Each structure stands twice: as structure tokens, then as C-alpha cells.
Amino acid sequence: MFISRGVDHIIRLTAVEIRPEAQIRIAAAGPVSSVRFRPDGARLLANASGVRRWDVPDGECVPAVIKAPRYQRADYSRSGRYFSAAGQGGGVFEDATGKQLDPLVPSVISQDVAFSPDERLVAVAHVGGVSVWNLQSGKKAFDIDPRDTREHHVGAVAFSPDGGYLAAGTFISNSGKLDGFGTVTIWDVRTAQRVRTFPGENCGIWRLAWSPDGRHLAVAAGVHFISRGTAKVWDVTTGKLVYDLKGHTECVWGVSFSPDGRRLVTCSGSRTGRPPETNGELKLWDMDTGLELLGLTENKATVFDVAFSPDGRWLGAGYADGKIRIWDLGRQTGLASLSN
Fold first, then answer.
1. Quick check: helix, strand or coil at residue 177?
2. pLDDT tens, 164-184?
3. Based on C-alpha coordinates, what's the Rg of the chain?
4. Residue ranges per domain, the chain?
5. Which fold has domain 2-40+125-339?
């Protein structure tokens, strides 16, 4: 039970009830680098030494497996008709058949792939920048280069909910420079021009998430081989910091807004240099106050990604020990809002 005062000066009484053990547990083939729900909430997409799909809530694996390197990303388009796989030989696939659509991704190792909300465009993050492709024609629409130096790679991309803007985050692929100085930029999709740059982090940018109303951008960042991680929420219009979410002790890998925008979930842990089973964290935050609501500690392995289902009922997380855990959030309730 939490009593909190929001930035709008409203006092809220909130109950968050999540059972300590996950409702669904899935054993994957290797470290789970991404988890995403299909828009209808009936299927989970994950990258674990290849892209696999599971039906929810029974946890049955859909037979088709798309081979792609681990530690990359997978995601669904808004309709659920397509899904993406980032990595060497990755691309865009039809969910119904598993068939890959060509040619949509250049012959490089892609770090992240994002669909525009109308499914017209696909943004591919890679070593040389971001390539944006037309999904219908298979032709490249434009390139952008958010990198500050040639040492930088683009590690994360995300379209705004209205499809008008594209966010990109960078990191340095050089362990001697601690994965940073990473930056986050916003680009106008119509003009392919940069419209905003947020203050950089002394670490890499690993995941970006827009709030459902498009006002805020959440950023997951960190250094994967030392104890350094940040999770921040920025106002896209003003460029001002809304919340610096304190509490993670390791690299923050994933971030996701709830469908109503009232909650944010983040996840963290180390990847190399220390046992991954000892320092994973998953935290749920109140976006009215910026306060931590709870931490899920059932499994201490590094948590590489986390996501809400589109209806807000399920919370899925992918772990370094090859486990996927899904919690039922159906019992989460807001009890009262009191104007002050």
C-alpha cells in the first residue's frame, strides 16, 4: 500500500498486489535478451539464441524458430501481423507464417528494429547509424546518423506513438571507454532532421520507451561490466528531466510504460565480469510521483528486458539464466485519488 503526492498535487492511495512467484515460467534456450507481447496479448515474442514465440497464458511454444544471434532484440508491429528480429541476418517476418520479408535490413548486424505505428516504416539501428525502410515497397526511405563519433553505435530506436518522431540512443563499442558517452536524440520522420538532443550519459543507451501520450521518453542506460546504471524520464517537448529513477545498482537494460502510462517498469543487472545470477533487479515505478512501488526479486539473474502486455494484465521479463517469467497484474488496483 502506498500513499503519495504527485507532481499535480493530488494525493493518491495505491495498492499494488503482485504475487511473489511468477504466474508463468518458460525455460528458453539461452539468455533472453528481449521479450515483447503481441498486441492481442495472446503471444509472447522473445530472443533467446534465436527468436521464439510462446502462447499466453499456457506457455506453449510456437514451433517456428528464427535463427539470430543472442543479445539482440525482437518486437511486434502494432497490428501483430509482423515481428522483427535484430541481429546478423535479422529482419521483418510475418507472424502467421514465419516468412521473412526481403529486402528490409542491410547485411550488417542490427542492434534494434522498430516499427512505425502505421506499419509503413521500419527503423533499423546498426553500426553506421539508423536506416529507415518502407515496409510495403521494401525500399529505403532515408538514413539518419545520431552518432557523435565513429566509435559510437546505435543501440536503440523507437517511434513516437503518433509516428511523427523517431528516438535513437547510442553507445561506444569500446570497453576502455565504459560504453559511453551515450546520447539520445529525437528526429522528425517527415524531414529526417534532428529536433532534440538530450544531455548525454557517461554510459551506453540500451532501450527507449515513449509514454502512450507521446509526452515523455524513458531511457535505460548503463555500463555492463561495472556497477553503473541509470533510468530517466524526459519531457520530449521541453527537453527537461522529469524523473531520475534512483535505485538500480547495475546496468539498466530495459524500460517499458504500462498501457495507461501510469506505471513504468525497469530492469537491470551485469553481463560480464560477475556472476549474472546475483545482481538482477526489476522495479515498478509510479509515474505520478516518480516513486518506486515495488521490486520483483523472485529471480536474481540479470534481467535483460521487460514489457507490459497491451491490455496491462501481464508483465513479462527475460533473464540471463534462460528463464522467462510472466506475472499476472490483474489484481493491481488504484484505490483512491484525493485532491489536495
1. helix
2. 999 999 987 665 555 567 899
3. 19
4. 2-40+125-339
5. Methylamine Dehydrogenase; Chain H (2.130.10)
